[in-house]
Specification:
The complex is a heterotrimer. By secondary structure, chain A is α/β, with parallel strands linked by helices. Chain A is built from 21 helices and 16 strands. Chain C has 15 helices and 22 strands. The chains are: A alpha/beta, B alpha/beta, C alpha/beta. Chains in contact: A-B, A-C, B-C.
């Protein structure tokens, strides 16, 4: 294992695989805040070179958190299929990159190979990819999952309708749901981020979503993104939900900071199989985002891309319906500007897809970041080109409850039209029946939220 | 009358006869792009149920019923969004109005952050004070107050500009009327919430309350919160803070929030606890 | 969560009934926000059967029997008056005109519980019946304009709701029991309310002198139905004007409504309407025939008819469930003086309010003094709009003005009561306390809308004292 290299006459030496991984990252303010980032671009490139010559086995054998201390590491390592791993363990990370980009690597080949990769290997190869590499690589892979409808088919581009409200007023939430539906948004999910993480409030919203879904006969899925234990209580009390949501982290300590354990997720999955309203088999919804481990001091000295890859290694065991990276939510101390946000979005999408997950992205930014709506629209186009399963939609890009901006209801239709993409088939038929969509374009009636008031 | 003036008059009369009376155009009163009035005008005019449109728009602050251009946002919607984003960014990047601090007789100190960029990217430095700053606070402030209130910019200096003149005096006078003396108020530039823990320790305050600008959203760039803790100490869990947020004109107005904060502080003093250990 | 029991008692022209409901309050704000107490659940626990309203004669209600019924129903429901924290006794239609109505209703309200208010007034009843019928909720859920006509024995209470908001309310002297006859069809009673309309019938009606026939019944009730149709004309039709209940003010408001999208009938006649009762003689009055006339009227053919949740019980459910409101959750009161009942509302003018905010409280004092002389009221609640944004300076000036007014107008020991529409009661209450500097009690609440002429009752604190239940009402007996 070579941990040093020369660049411009200077020798760069690294103490560990973990340090190589961190310093090979593209510049991120979060790695700088953690004191892990390369001091300058030369050191960054030196680390990338070292990384490119490390073997798949080197990264597998040096997980950034100890196997004994962390169930995320254990689940990821234990899921590796020995036969697949055996074939590639002596590939360098540079070779792995070229193999993935090669014309000969088909979607089936990549999905097969994926079974031999750990999170650290996936993070490693990502660090060697340019932005277009990440788009091209990801575009080869489609991950389909089914809850009530099937998400992720090639040629589709879906949306989660996010009707958030400042005080969880059910009628106000309903108004935003109608608005979104009238723009053809909501085929992946109608899902609320609640203000009140209480059983009664969550139950009330779930009931309303279920009523809307049934009365308007919308082929989609619904959930409320409260803490998983709150959702479980609501379901035990008879509340209807298609999915369970939880934010996850790349370490056991991070997950504990989120207030759940692996047993919690297992119990939730079991509960939903018995009492959920969806056909399945995929019934979980996970959210991730670079930097969340550092914010709870659960990063174990590892960089944020590697920790993010570990979230995916953890998520895959539960066969989620959707996984969503909330890419620019956490603030400039983790992703400083548009360059970093766009990079992180492409990294997360690629890593998730390579892990075998149905990746979507909340292309978002806060008002204290050096980013704006133009940057988020750029990222959206890049991700749609990369085959991202879905994006978020809120009224006019302004989420009044989370106080950040993401995609507007008005974005998905334009992106679909430009790239020749469609919503999920049944949902498209429903939109046509409702007169919102005609031959892939929004009609004059689209945007009139009152067409649903007679429900 | 000069010939030229006469020609002008005739020309105007002829034009008026040909094209109708043309009054010189007066400047219409300006509408603020970030105002509620401007946004109220961004509304679909042809809908199936106009009544429902109006009713639904009152039920959520979200921008709904706004219409479209092709699949995209209308020009006015786009401009209103950009205007609000500009206000929000300005609220983060600007400095607090020195005149307001002067009027309220607040002296200023600064966290370890050297500039706004460092403040945004290094929350760890925003939590800390230099030794000199600590000494300065000890020199200028009453030691061991029952309640120490101070002001900080946090992520919105605009919140300080817009709220503090009404919020701070209501709290100080309100506590005074209940027989509770407050410590010497001051202002901390580039402060974060946990800076209050350091301040509590060096001034030995029983209750510490920071009035701090929140991360701006598009709806409100100048929203303020009051974070209150009993015997705040460096390294204590976040759950020990009691928070009153959403203090701004469209949330809870500052005088009312101040009066409420007075009650909360009194109850915290009685309970000798704050945060999750303290139930209102 | 906190809950209280609320009673509704309706003494109508024809029937008498009672409901007991549970109103649950909770703080709907998250822990890091200022609290916001709302009524979050309304559950009806008990409904009495429908009694015939007991009378002694044409001019007197049988008070003893009514009290007996209520006491019996309380026992049946398993509640005692001390368990009941709120509610309303409402007296409507013909019963209101009885000579002993005033005394009886006030006796009943104290019999029913400490904070059960006595109320009446035709427009208020329309709103209450509209809410009780479910029309308000329907209009909200379906984002529609819905009109409910509560047609009882003596009067018809009409209320319009648009997307959950009350838009118009009025009362007409149209009811099923304005004329009564015996088994032989001989008229036994004609209400004075019917006098004006009787001119239109084309035949004389008088007690003992005429025998009703199906044709005559139809003739009469067709005209009554036409009067109801004319409420929605623009301008209001002459028949509707003719039968407007004397103290009802809102008849003209219906014509400014957005398109009416649905209609419902409640009350006893509403009940006959949906049951499709055939026998016009069944109750010995006009009720069944009026329901039939309505079925053939333009009200049925021109509008989408919806079936209300409550028909005959709409008013009593409305009184039990919808009479109580909650104050804002940042308020001030110096001590528990509650319940406070029958406080007249002094709504000060915008000009006086503006002046007081800038330190000139002359107008405010003048208006308060004039109000006291006019009404002879010992006490009053000073009501104002307030502002969305008040500066500290304005707050102090206003508080000084109010404190000064309170000192000069109120007797010693009389509490100073203030109500603002905007959320500013806690800061105003604190500032007034500082301005008064003496021990006078203060109650300062917000988030309640009132009109000139209203009265207010304030109940005991809920949710650990952070909010107060409030009933805004009209008093017909003064």
């Amino acid at each position: 294992m070579r941990l040093k290299t020369m660049l411009g006459g200077k020798v760069y030496a690294f103490r560990s695989v973990k340090e190589v991984l961190a310093k090979a990252n593209e510049k991120k303010s979060g790695d700088e805040l953690a004191g892990l980032a390369a001091k300058n671009d030369s050191e960054r490139i030196a680390a990338k070179e070292v990384l490119s010559e490390l073997l798949v086995s080197d990264l597998r054998n040096h997980p950034v958190v100890d196997y004994d201390k962390d169930d995320v590491t254990r689940m990821d390592q234990d899921s590796v299929e020995p036969a697949v791993y055996h074939k590639i363990k002596n590939w360098s990370i540079g070779e792995l990159r070229e193999w993935l980009l090669d014309y000969n690597a088909s979607e089936a080949d990549i999905k097969y190979l994926s079974k031999g990769l750990t999170a650290e290997v996936i993070a490693g190869v990502t660090k060697l990819m340019s932005n277009l590499d990440l788009i091209y690589g990801a575009s080869k892979i489609r991950i389909e999952t089914t809850c009530n409808t099937t998400l992720g088919k090639r040629g589709t581009f879906s949306t989660r309708l996010q009707p958030n409200h400042t005080v969880d007023d059910v009628d106000g939430i309903t108004a935003s749901v109608y608005e979104g539906l009238s723009y053809g948004v909501g085929d992946a999910l109608i899902g609320l981020n609640p203000v009140n993480d209480t059983v009664s409030s969550v139950r009330e919203v779930l009931k309303r979503f279920d009523e809307i879904k049934n009365q308007l006969e919308i082929p989609t899925q619904q959930c409320v993104l409260a803490h998983i234990t709150t959702q479980m209580e609501a379901v035990k009390e008879g509340a209807p939900t298609d999915l369970f949501f939880q934010s996850i982290a790349g370490s056991q300590k991070g997950n504990e900071a989120f207030g759940f354990t692996t047993e919690t997720i297992e119990e939730a999955a079991d509960l939903l199989e018995r009492k959920g309203t969806a056909k399945g088999p995929n019934r979980m919804y996970f959210e991730t985002g670079q930097g969340s481990e550092l914010s709870s001091m659960a990063h174990h000295g590892a960089d944020q891309v590697t920790m993010e890859a570990r979230c995916y290694g953890y998520a895959k065991k539960f066969k989620p319906f959707i996984v969503n990276t909330v890419v620019g939510f956490i603030g400039p101390e983790y992703l400083y500007d548009s360059t970093q946000v766009i990079r992180a979005g492409l990294e997360d999408h690629f890593m998730g897809k390579l892990t075998g997950l149905p990746m979507g992205c909340d292309c978002c930014y806060t008002n204290h970041m050096a980013a704006g709506q133009n940057d988020i629209e750029n990222l959206t186009m890049l991700l749609a080109a990369a085959g991202c399963n879905y994006i978020i939609g809120v009224p006019a890009s302004d989420d009044v409850m989370l106080n950040y901006q993401t995609n507007a209801f008005h974005d998905a239709a334009a992106v679909r039209e430009i790239l020749g993409l469609r919503p999920i088939g049944e949902f498209e038929a429903w939109l046509e029946k409702r007169g919102v969509l005609e031959r892939g374009k929004l009609t004059g009636r689209a945007g009139d939220l009152t067409i649903f008031t007679g429900r | 009358m000069k010939e030229r003036e006469l020609i002008d008059i005739i020309a105007r009369k002829v034009m008026a006869a040909l094209y109708g009376e043309q009054e010189p155009r007066k400047d219409a009163p300006l509408t603020d792009i970030s105002s509620a009035a401007y946004k109220a005008n961004i509304k679909l005019d042809q809908v199936e149920n106009p009544l429902a449109l109006d009713a639904m728009r009152t039920k959520t602050p979200a921008r709904i019923g706004i219409g479209k251009a092709g699949p995209r946002l209308g020009t006015k919607t786009l401009l209103a969004l950009r205007a609000d984003h500009a206000s929000a960014k300005d609220a983060v990047l600007k400095s607090v109005d020195e005149n307001i601090l002067k009027e309220l007789e607040l002296f200023s100190v600064q966290s370890l952050c050297g500039d706004i960029d460092e403040h945004l990217t290094r929350p760890d430095l925003g939590r800390r004070l230099s030794e000199e700053t600590k000494l300065r606070l000890q020199e200028h402030c009453v030691y061991g107050p029952r309640v120490q209130i101070y002001v900080s910019d946090g992520l919105s200096s605009l919140a300080v500009d817009e709220n503090i003149s009404d919020l701070l005096p209501v709290m100080i006078d309100g506590l005074e009327a209940k027989g509770i003396k407050t410590g010497t108020p001051f202002f901390v530039k580039y402060g974060r919430v946990p800076t209050m823990d350091v301040i509590s320790e060096i001034l030995n305050a029983e209750v510490t309350c920071v009035l701090l600008g929140e991360r701006p959203g598009l709806a409100a760039a100048g929203s303020m919160s009051a974070y209150i803790a009993y015997r705040a100490a460096v390294g204590m869990p976040e759950s020990r803070r009691t928070v009153i947020s959403n203090i701004h004109t469209k949330g809870i107005q500052p005088v009312e929030a101040g009066a409420y904060a007075v009650d909360v502080i009194i109850k915290i003093l009685e309970a000798k606890a704050s945060g999750v250990d303290f139930k209102l | 969560m906190d809950s209280i029991l609320s009673v509704g008692i309706d003494i109508g022209t024809t029937t008498l009934s009672m409901v007991i409901s549970r109103l649950s309050f909770s703080n709907t704000a998250v822990s890091y926000m200022v609290p916001q107490v709302d009524i979050t659940e309304k559950e009806i626990l008990y409904k009495s059967r429908i009694y015939d309203t007991p009378s002694l004669d044409d001019t007197h209600l049988n008070g003893d029997e009514i009290k007996g019924i209520i006491e019996r129903e309380y026992r049946g429901a398993g509640v005692t008056p001390d368990m009941v924290d709120s509610g309303a006794v409402i007296i409507t239609g013909e019963s209101l005109l009885k000579e002993n109505a005033d005394t009886l209703v006030n006796q009943l309200s104290s019999l029913a519980g400490e904070f059960v208010v006595a109320t009446a007034g035709p427009d208020l009843e329309s709103m209450i019946a509209g809410k009780g019928s479910g029309a308000e909720a329907y209009s909200k859920t379906h984002s529609r304009t819905v009109v409910n006509l509560d047609i009882g024995g003596g009067t018809t209470n009409i209320a319009a709701f648009s997307c959950g908001e009350l838009m118009a309310q009025a009362c007409l002297d149209i009811g099923g029991r304005l004329l009564q006859y015996d088994e032989k069809g001989i008229i036994t009673y004609v209400s004075p309310r019917l006098n004006d309309l009787a001119q239109e019938f084309g035949f004389q009606i008088a007690v003992g002198e005429m025998t009703v026939t199906p044709q005559r019944l139809k003739k009469m009730t067709d005209i009554m139905a036409r009067a109801l149709e004319q409420v929605f004309w623009e301008p209001v039709g002459p028949l509707a004007e003719l039968v407007r209940t004397a103290s009802s003010k809102g008849l003209g408001d219906f014509k400014v409504l957005p398109r009416i999208q649905a209609l419902s009938f409640s009350g006893g006649v509403g009940d006959c309407y949906y049951r499709k009762e055939e026998n016009p003689y069944k109750y010995g009055d006009l009720g069944v025939s009026l329901a039939q006339s309505l079925r053939h009227s333009s009200l049925t053919s021109d509008y989408q008819l919806i079936e209300p949740v409550e028909t005959i019980r709409a008013t009593v459910v409305g009184a039990g469930v919808y009479a109580t409101a909650v104050s804002g959750s940042t308020i001030a009161y110096s001590q528990e003086l509650f319940p406070i009942k029958n406080i007249p509302v002094l709504l000060i003018s915008q000009a006086a309010e503006q002046d007081a905010f800038s330190g000139n409280h002359e107008k405010l004092l003048e208006e308060a003094a004039w109000f006291q002389i006019q009404t002879g009221a010992e006490t009053l609640i000073l009501c104002m709009k307030g502002k969305e944004r008040v500066s500290y300076e304005e707050l102090r000036l206003l508080a000084e003005g109010i404190a000064c007014g309170g000192e000069s107008l109120l007797k010693e020991g009389e509490p100073l009561l203030i109500l603002t529409e905007h959320d500013m009661a806690k800061s105003l209450g604190q500032a007034i306390g500082q301005a008064l500097g003496n021990g006078r009690d203060i109650v300062c609440i917000d988030n309640i809308k009132v009109s000139q002429g209203d009265y207010i009752d304030i109940g005991k604190p809920i949710m650990k004292g952070i909010a107060l239940p409030v009933v805004v009402k009209t008093l017909i007996f003064q």
